Task: inverse folding
């Protein structure tokens, strides 16, 4: 989707007298990048978390305990709710989503039923999900707020959550009518409700506190 900000960039580029030269050079570089990406697909293994971002291969360091605690807690709640209500599929850690230029392995992602029903055994590359959750670390925060934010927005990922596991803060963004992310919530307490996953509403504290996580899980699993 071409947003207003993209239109402005295109207009600025096309206003330059050497626009054809620049566009041709950009195309040549993208051709070389695609070759590098094909090699990336051939070389990757399931032993490490790795991404392809704007022509560069990014290998991630092992996560800190608080990162693992938060992503695991949220996955437990989200996957239980989605599975019980047969809403789709929740990916965790090593699900690689392949967008038009880049390949990411977000901490969590959700695909609705219309997408997940098309998944096949042995599949290793996945389309743009409906929700992405990234848990920050010092090494990933720049990309989470920068290129990934813009890329998820451009590929119409309905919701994007960013979680700071140290300060225990969650940010929730949703696409607005213009196709741009709008900050809906930034908090360390209260509740968060996901539009991408119908009816999924949890306490923010349950993402960071083990006891409250179990309490929230009990509510999800309680027979109706």
Result:
């Amino acid at each position: 989707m071409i947003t207003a900000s993209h239109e402005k960039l295109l207009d600025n580029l096309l206003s330059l007298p050497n626009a054809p030269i620049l566009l041709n050079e950009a195309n040549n570089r993208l051709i070389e990048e695609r070759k590098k990406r094909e090699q990336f697909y051939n070389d990757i293994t399931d032993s490490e978390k790795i991404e392809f971002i704007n022509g560069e291969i990014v290998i991630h360091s092992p996560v800190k305990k608080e990162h693992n605690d938060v992503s695991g807690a949220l996955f437990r709640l989200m996957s239980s709710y989605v599975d019980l209500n047969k809403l789709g599929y929740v990916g965790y850690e090593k699900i690689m989503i392949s967008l038009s230029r880049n390949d990411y392995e977000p901490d969590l992602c959700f695909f609705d039923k219309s997408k997940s029903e098309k998944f096949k055994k042995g599949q290793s590359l996945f389309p743009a999900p409906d929700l992405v959750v990234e848990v920050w670390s010092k090494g990933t925060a720049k990309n989470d707020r920068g290129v990934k934010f813009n890329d998820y927005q451009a590929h119409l990922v309905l919701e994007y959550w960013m979680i700071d596991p140290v300060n225990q803060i969650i940010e929730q963004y949703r696409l607005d009518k213009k196709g741009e992310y709008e900050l809906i919530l930034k908090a360390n307490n209260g509740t968060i409700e996901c539009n991408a996953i119908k009816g999924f509403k949890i306490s923010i504290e349950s993402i960071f506190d083990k006891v409250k996580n179990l309490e929230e899980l009990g509510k999800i699993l309680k027979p109706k």
